[in-house]
Write a structure and sequence with these properties.
Blueprint (H helix, E strand, L loop, with lengths): L2 H31 L6 H27 L9 H22 L3 H26 L8 H38 L2
């Protein structure tokens, strides 16, 4: 196996581990965000996306397993995503502790948009994984993309729109 082939295999592994970790962290971010949400419409939207994200965790895990990888293995690519998630959770907690509910809701919405941006990007990149040599793997990845990517696109689009609305409301209040 050539150095380039080994690098490619490592990149695929890193991507699917990051995809899985991003979904896991996304669940935590959504759950923390519920403590800060003030608007019923936003809460309803986040609840729907949390439910879908919990389903995405299982789909992402199935991809990790389909590649013959250990879903519980800790690698630097996962730690990178986990540390970002921890920082986002810390921002939500800090904003909540300030007592300013509007600021906390904005912090939560910002955290969600950051996570959904990474999440959507991961699913887009999954399309680039070469699967010509493994029909079973191709089937798993194609089905996962078909089921999840449209939801991820919707999550990103609507969470950005919600964040924009929240910011617009905060700016008008000044």
């Amino acid at each position: 196996m050539t150095t380039d082939q080994l690098r490619g295999i490592r990149a695929v592994q890193d991507l699917v581990y990051q995809l899985y970790e991003t979904e896991l962290v996304g669940v935590q971010v959504y759950r923390a965000a519920f403590e800060a949400v003030n608007h019923a419409k936003v809460q309803e939207e986040w609840q729907r996306y949390l439910t879908e994200t919990e389903q995405h965790v299982e789909v992402a895990r199935s991809i990790v397993v389909a590649l013959g990888l250990d879903p519980d293995r800790d690698i630097p690519a996962r730690n990178f995503v986990r540390r970002i998630g921890q920082a986002l959770l810390a921002n939500i907690r800090e904003a909540l502790s300030s007592g300013d509910r509007s600021a906390a809701e904005l912090a939560a919405a910002e955290a969600i948009v950051y996570m959904e941006t990474k999440d959507h990007f991961n699913w887009e990149l999954l399309r680039c994984v070469p699967t010509q040599q493994a029909a079973d793997l191709a089937k798993v990845i194609d089905q996962a993309i078909h089921d999840v990517e449209p939801q991820e696109a919707r999550h990103l689009y609507y969470t950005r729109a919600s964040l924009r609305e929240l910011w617009s409301g905060a700016l008008r209040a000044t």
